Amino acid sequence: MSVPRTPAAHAEDPAGTPSPFAGLGASIDRGIARGLARVTGGALGPYQAAIVRIGFAATWLLFLLREWPNRSELYGPDSPWTFDLAKRLVAGNHAFTALLWSDSRGWFELVYAVAIVSSAMLLVGWRTRTASVLFMIGVLSLQNRSVFMGDGGDNVIHLMAIYLVFTRCGQVWSLDRRRALRAAAASEAAGAEVDAEVDAVAGSEAAESVAGGKAAAGRLWNDPVGIALWALLGAALVMATAAGKLSTEWEVALWAGLLLQALWWAVRRYAPGEPRTVLDIMANVIHNGAMLVIVVEVCLIYSTAGWYKIQGSRWEDGTALYYPLHLDDFTPWPGLSHALAGNSLMVMLITYGTVMVQVAFPFTLFNRRVKNVLLAAMMLEHASIAVVLGLPFFSLAMIAADAVFLPTGFLRWLGERISRPLRERGTRAGAAAIPGQRPETAAGDEDTGQPAAGSPSAEAVS
Question: Which of 196, 206, 222, 254 is deepest in the core (most CB within 10 A)?
């Protein structure tokens, strides 16, 4: 008599061994669910985004300040790459540059000043969203005006200026973050005051008016400075569009960005429920996608550089470093350069080491310890290039790009080491001004820089 097999029996072979595919579908579903929750639930790498923001803003700001006496020859009316030549080139490649909207010196000085101010704003994280857009406009306007004035570092800044617009890079280490914490503390204090006043007038019509008035005063989205900045940008965009200064692609992109920012503010101001949650999810997805693009971009830079070096005969025989050490344009310290060039073993080790590190680095991302060792080696290499070859801004740009791979624990430790003396100095100043008063603690965890539960992020007010 045959015994019918149960469904459980189908999951086993005749020997009774469980199928290796049993439960595979459930595991895949759980993995996908965890991945989606991680991508949509928050902005990944807030410290890495902040250090990239600070690095590139500082690099571009220092460059603009150093070249202040030569700005007109580099990007202005006195440039060898004349206004007409630049217009002919841009007409073909449709690159964005506000400097070609007018050939007057006053307009050039205004754009250059905006580039400096926006770099400083992005560096300290003040109105980060606005600053990131202005930073991108400043970088593209200057670099696309004179395309022969840049090097590899300028190309990296060019790309990262665009990517930073899509990141939430002001969530930590920014004035926006500090402002958000203070707004959260003020909101909590206003809420306590509302409760006290409502209790005092309980049962009367005045209770509703007091509560409504305090709640309106405590809203975080009454931001006249931010509204004024975006209204100014909107007016400038209207004038540029009316004058036909923008190509179709940039016109669509800039208007879409402005309208999305207006929608962001309106929803978070008047509809703090599900619409706000949806916008947060969208912002997190865009941020995480932009951070992934930055990571991939840096990997491509190193992998392509390394593989191109392998094809060069001077890199193959280990003598590539010898030649730039004898060029006058790359020897700010002739004694140091000639001493290094005279050591053939050191030249060979550095040449081969550079190629191996650049080719191997993208493959080490799967091993954290090896990745950190090679990351330190690359940063040390760029610092050496800044000193030995006299390329400080190229090196700063590459170090800022490398910083996206720095471990979160190290960044938090570094931020704590830098911020602790400043907090202690502020505490001593407050104690001296008001003897006997205990210093107030900021909303959130000061040791880690993470927001307290329910506190707004810096992007909420940027």
Answer: 254
Give me the residues paired with residue 12 across strands: 18
As to burial, measured by CB atoms within 10 angstroms (0-12 exposed, 13-18 middle, 19+ buried), residue 147 is: middle
Q: Which two tokens stand for residue 322?
A: 């010898």
Query: Where is 152: in which H helix or E strand?
Result: helix 152-164
Pair 196, 457: CB distance under 8 Å: no
DSSP states of 52-82: HHHHHHHHHHHHHHHTGGGHHHHHSTT-SS-
Residues above pLDDT 90, as percent of the chain: 57
pTM score, whole prediction = 0.83
Quick check: 54 and 176 in contact, CB under 8 A? no
Residues in the chain: 462
Structure tokens at 211: 């509560």
The backbone torsions φ and ψ at residue 443, rounded to the nearest 5 degrees and listed phi first, read -65, 130
Of 54 and 33, the one with more pLDDT: 54
Residue-wise burial string across 248-269, b where 16 or more C-beta atoms lie within 10 A, e elsewhere: eebeeebeebbeebeebbebbe
Beta carbons within 10 angstroms of residue 233's beta carbon: 18
Separation of alpha carbons 409 and 402, rounded Å: 16
Alpha-carbon distance of 157 to 135, in angstroms, equals: 10
DSSP code for 456: P
